[in-house]
TrEMBL record:
Gene: fdhD
InterPro entries: Cytidine_deaminase-like (IPR016193), FdhD (IPR003786)
NCBIfam families from the UniProt entry: fdhD_narQ
Active-site residue numbers: C107
Record-linked Gene3D superfamilies: 3.10.20.10, Cytidine Deaminase, domain 2
UniProt binding sites for Mo-bis(molybdopterin guanine dinucleotide): F245, I246, R247, Q248, N249, R250
Function: Required for formate dehydrogenase (FDH) activity. Acts as a sulfur carrier protein that transfers sulfur from IscS to the molybdenum cofactor prior to its insertion into FDH.
Family: Belongs to the FdhD family.
GO terms for biological process, alphabetical: Mo-molybdopterin cofactor biosynthetic process
Name used for this protein in its record: Sulfur carrier protein FdhD
GO molecular function: sulfur carrier activity; sulfurtransferase activity
Organism: Pontibacillus yanchengensis
Length: 270
């Protein structure tokens, strides 16, 4: 990515009965205000990396765009912390507040969403693919081996877009949703097919994370951490395979069990 998201800070560290003065590495926190059609739409607290991908993914998550071609231009002013966006269509009226609880229905099943944008953009995954257990372990091992910023600071989240055998793009951010939006933005900007792709994620599988993955339109979510019950109910509803606690040759398949097999079949289950 090329951008620096880590700063240094002089601290006193206590270890085994001894104080020492050292220089520690701290994750940078950055405020980015998104201005759309001249209107300040939102301010995101994020890491100052992959900001264009973040803005694109955010616009898609907010149901303001469907594809990268819906954007007329994006101008980033990282010095002042503003992103200026012009769309080819006007901003829709926001009839619901961003914190209003909203109950929606889709594909004949009731779902409980927190924001009206989720109802507009959450997708039921119609086509899925099978991964072998070994492919899951390999992807997670690669993901964790490339966790330099987390190892340096302990203060960031990671999300990656992967095919069956390798990571295609990895995003880092202090915000877990921002990391996923960066992946979403990268996918849209580069017109990458969602077919046979998965999201590898560093954090807990919450309902918010699960909905974000469904918005991206990818049907498999891999994590070294735990899920919540609402996330799993949504995963079943949205037809997303969730695999958690991927650690040291162990894993739990919570939903979509038929899509994680000891050995991949010759023909995928569709």
């Amino acid at each position: 990515m090329g951008e620096n998201i880590v700063d240094s800070w002089n601290i006193q560290k206590y270890h085994r009965g001894t104080y020492m003065e050292i220089e520690d590495e701290i994750a940078i926190e950055f405020a980015l205000t998104v201005v759309i059609q001249g209107e300040e739409y939102a301010t995101m607290i994020c890491s100052p990396s992959a900001l264009e991908e973040l803005v694109i993914g955010f616009l898609a998550s907010e149901a303001l765009i469907r594809s990268y071609e819906d954007i007329q231009y994006i101008q980033l002013d990282s010095e002042s912390g503003f992103a200026y966006v012009e769309l080819f269509t006007d901003l829709p009226e926001r009839s619901y507040g961003r914190t209003k609880r909203f109950i929606g229905s889709c594909c004949g099943k009731s779902r409980e969403f927190y924001f009206d944008q989720d109802v507009k953009t959450a997708k039921t995954i119609m086509k899925k693919h099978v991964l072998s257990v070994q492919q899951v372990f390999t992807l997670m091992d690669t993901f964790q081996q490339h966790s330099e910023d987390f190892k340096r600071t302990g203060g960031v989240h990671q999300a990656a877009l992967a095919n069956r055998n390798e990571l295609l793009y990895k995003a880092v951010d202090i915000g877990r949703h921002n990391a996923l939006d960066k992946v979403y933005g990268y996918l849209l900007k580069n017109q990458i097919s969602r077919r046979e792709k998965q999201i590898v994620f560093s954090g807990r599988i919450s309902s918010e994370v699960l909905v974000k993955v469904s918005k991206i339109g990818i049907g498999t979510l891999l994590s070294p951490s735990a899920p919540t019950d609402l996330a799993l109910r949504l995963a079943e509803d949205l037809n997303i395979t969730t695999v958690g606690f991927i650690r040291q040759n162990r894993l739990n398949v919570y939903t979509g069990q038929s899509y994680i097999q000891e050995e991949p079949p010759l023909i995928d289950i569709r």
